[in-house]
Write a structure and sequence with these properties.
The protein has 250 residues and is of the alpha+beta class. It is 50% helix and 14% strand. It has eight helices and seven strands, in the order αααααββαββαβββα.
Amino acid sequence: MGSDLLTWRDLLDIFAVSLFFYGILKLLKLTRGMSIARGIAILGVFWLFAEILELKTLSWMFEKIWAVGIFSLVVIFQPEIRKALGKLGQRGALSQSRKISEMVIDRVVRACSLLSERQIGALVVIERSQNLESILESCIHIDAVLSSELIITIFNPISPLHDGAIVVRGDRLVYASCILPLSRSTDIPRKYGTRHRAGVGITEESDAICVIVSEETGEVSLAISGKLNRNLDQELLRALLMKELLNEGA
């Protein structure tokens, strides 16, 4: 009788498996994998019917497909797997050097407000607990004390560094001219282009947040966890940054 009861190890096993499949489904939802997953599900149904009806040739074919398919999926999703493992390994306590001060927020807000008035496009990525170096591409290392003037100078259209994003870490501007991963989300309005998709994309793949200034309209947006907060004035942008960056340890 006792052997039929669930032990704490059984419950732990069920929880671990559930957590594993939740992580897989979340990863698929954020990537191109959802359409591939639907295709695999359809093949799975055909394979189940083949097994039930004892169709030996078809069952043999599916066994070979699964063997090759697992290897193929690893190859197809190599970038997503690498980023997911990197994200898992890099999560941790926010170090003292990365803490954002109210002064840093004021400098970012002031710079983005001035860029907005002049309709100069900008992408300001603010790093939190996760190191972004495994996600960013083609960055120019700066590592200078952050100031509003430095941000404005970098995004000036005549600057060789104006294309791409800057990355803020603590009170320092560490990188400029960075290429960010583009979001594939269908929730982003079609009127927004590559700059906004890049700003949302970096927040989908990390815990960073990103201030986006539109070159076409001067509109200021803030991307947080893959969501876009649009049409922000100076006070609202500052309030959101204060909430996200100063209250995260509360």
